[in-house]
Amino acid sequence: MSDVDRSIRVRAFLEQWLSVLLIAAVLLAAVGGWWSYQVHANPDVERESVTVGQWTESTAFDHSSVVVNDSLVFEEGERVRNRPVYYVNLAEDLDVSYRYAHTASEGAVDVTTDVRLVYRGVEGEDVLWQYAEPLASGSADGLTADGNHTVDATVDIDEVFANIDTIERQLGAAGTIEIRVVAASSVEGTLSGRDVSATYESAMPITVTQQTLRVLETETIDESGQRTDTVERVVEPSGVEAVGSVLVFVVGLAGTGGLLVARRSGLVDLSPDEREILHVHQQEP
Q: Could you tell me the pTM of the whole model?
């Protein structure tokens, strides 16, 4: 087939399918334009939660006692602190200091605390009875991370034994007696922009014998909190989307323009002689 014959066949194809090709080119340009607009002028937006503030709230107990009777091990007047065991023969009181604090960089809370001494009789996991007496109370307004809320209380050791004797005498079978220093703190305010309203209970268990008071592992709180905000982030288009959308639009637009020019200028129209040549070639076996 000569180049002339090939040119006639191409122009004949374009002449026959020009309307279809023109519609396809217009659709391609429209799709490319819409895609390009979505990618560049109307990008996707992702919403995600980000932490804008976080803090912790914690409580703790400290305990100590002043030695009132001299011994080879401890000197009279010496204050012993945070010991696992206190000796009844050497001490009259057990001093307890309860502390609440938070770490929020912004905000403040009002804290009210009641400290009580709880006696209870237990058998296994069953609590048979419970009796409590107040020890101390305190409050703090506008507490920030720079300060602590502290309440001090004193446990009279002789009074503890007297109460235990009274309970055992009144009940007859009192079960195993446990005592606990319990602190209940009510917290109200704002921490790192978030409203806070909570009540925390902490405990310092103590086992008692005729000779000792043994402080067990304390039950304190270590709570964490946070404040989150929802932020919007523009998703940058990929290279394929950015270039491909424009390329599809340009190809469709160029095709539309080229086909319109070809139709208006008559470039695809065949002359009678060219139609005759095409007809002859089509008749050839």
A: 0.67
